[in-house]
Amino acid sequence: MRFREVKILLIISTLAIFSAFTPGEDMRPLMKQVFRKSTWNSMSADMTLTIIDSRGEKRVREVKFYSKKDKEGNNRMLMRFVRPREVLGTSFLLLEHRNRDDDRYLYLPALRRVKRIVASGKKGNFMSSDFTYYDIGEPKLDDFKYRFLGEETFRGVKCLKIEATPSSPKVLEETGYSKIIYWVDPDKKIILKAEYYDERGKLQKILNINKHKLINGVYFATDMVMRDVQISHISRIKFSNIKINESIPEKYFSVKFLRRR
User: Is the CATH number 2.50.20.10 carried by domain 22-258?
Assistant: First the structure.
């Protein structure tokens, strides 16, 4: 085969790859792979939540993080705040369900009571950060409809831009998001960036996922920054000392356990 023919074949192959999706195409199958890809049954880690307000003042919270799947494959997540002293003992429990709303509980030691986060409270800010209660955990695939917008290079990666819009008025009301735009690495099936638009359709937050770690064949986001562009507020979550498939007691994922120090 002559060089010219080889060159033409390479151009055709490249165009075929880049035109694999058409604008407006349903991207649900891809986003299902992006959201549901964990191969491990349990995970523990140290987590740091850093919050920086519009004046540049910084607050740092240290958290013990645990997650574990139940018999049906649903994920359970426990976050226990250990530093500084004013948040010591504060705990958040998330019990995910595939076919119904997730259960969310927050324990505040000062009040000595467990607060259940109802559906209407999912758009509230998690521990005064720029992440909402809805943002914590695996996104609900059926809450949004996904369509292909085009391609855009971000941090040197040719990403697929995918627009997610609420599947119902109820989802819009509960999440507060009129749309989310994702920048997805099609090879690793990971999100590198996301833009969140408020109920009025105005850009509210930008998420940058700065680092992923390959763990047991799965890329896990270990460093992410959420910036609220409307109030100049920034929150950063970092994971370290990650351990997978170690024994985590079942009692950790119960409302009763939240009250234990």
Answer: yes
